Amino acid sequence: MIKIPPVSEHKKAEKETISTETQSETGTEPAVPKETLAAETSITISLIGDCTLGSAPDSDQYNNFDAYKTVYGIDYFFQNVKSYLESDDLSIINLEGTLTTAENSASKSDVYKGDPSYVSALSDSSIEAASLANNHTEDYGTAGLTETQTTLKDAGITAFGNDETAVLELKGIKVGLVGISAVDKQVSECQTQLTTAVNAVKEQGANLVIVNFHWGTKGETTPNSDQTTLAHAAVDAGADLVVGHHPHVLQGMEVYNNRTIFYSLGSFCDGADMYPDDMDTVIFQPTFTFNTSKELTSTTNSIIPCTISSDSTFNNYQPTPAEDSEKTRIEQKIKDLSSQIGNSISGSDSSSDPNSTTGSANTADSNSTSGSDASGSEKNTTVSSESETSSESETSSETSSDGNSSGGSDNSGSSGNNSTKLFLPE
After folding, report:
1. Which residue from 85, 107, 197, 293 has the fewest beta carbons nearer than 10 Å?
2. Quick one: how many helices (H) and strands (E) in the chain?
3. Handedness of CA 110, 115, 119, 121 (dihedral sign)
4. The whole model's pTM is what?
5. Is 27 left (phi over 0), alpha (psi -120 to 50) or beta?
6. Element holding 306 (H helix, E strand)
7. Poorest-confidence range of 40-54, 87-101, 103-117, 359-373?
8. Is 67 exposed, middle or buried, given 0-12, 13-18 or 19+ CB atoms closer than 10 A?
9. What is the pLDDT of residues 154-169, one digit of tens each?
């Protein structure tokens, strides 16, 4: 296993953006100036699944999300995973529900809302972006959605999804965020929406495109054909990473055309269900490396196994990193689920892969988190800035995609030496 420097060393390094001017073939006319980086740059992004920060009207008022907030305070919910989210460059959730005072709910069985003040559970935990592309963002109509969007914006959190895209700048790299809800939609409709959204962020200069899908069937651990079709279409359209949610359980990972697809991240902070059948989840932390021309050269994926609750007998709405045998079990579960869709995650070292520009794994330093050291680090985005330290630790082992990339056209944003690794902790 090969060690890499903590991500915080990348964060502390100042990345200078330089404009260069070249001449045309005739040598008489300058070409359009191209921005470059002073050095190779890596950014780490945390992606987590469904977060419902609130309760249903008919939920148990003594044990629901609101009751826990009243007793334990708003910082309670993410306190066990906060250090991981502080150690990255950007944290993204799927916010499934509303943050609103609206009273008129949609005419359906399950509707969820939390008080707008609950947004501090996100902003105080170093979460900077939220996808609203799901089947619960309009639980309280247009008024509820609008208030949710405004609440997030006022807290410094970027909301995106469906027709709303976003582009954030991290260390000189522009990251395009796309969210598509495929629930109760035809694949063709989603594909049209997808192409429009990906093109929109690319036109704004995105060097990295992340697509979040809300899709699949609740409780199903295997992606269906619609999910696979849309995931591959996203990569073919220019996505560099595809993640999904809605099944509320984990689904496996796939590498397609050197791009990672994580079909379902599961639930995470789930105020909707106190007694779910499955409480396994993850923090998914890919690290993307770019050359000085801002071309993506490698992707290294790290997974932090978690449970949605710090109590194993019921959901107390406090996601917590898994330990010991539970950690090992969730790791193996992801390997098995990935194997079912044609990807082997063996945990072996593949640093000899000639296509890899990273070939590395995180250290097991007891004083650092996955991608963080104890000296403190700063998130540098156009949305917000956090400077925190962390004391957790994670170990990762590197595996190759075992040649399981599927056929199809090349990703439009890929460079010739791009490679994708699948990481799992040991």
Report:
1. 107
2. 8, 22
3. negative
4. 0.79
5. left
6. strand 296-307
7. 359-373
8. middle
9. 999 999 998 999 999 9
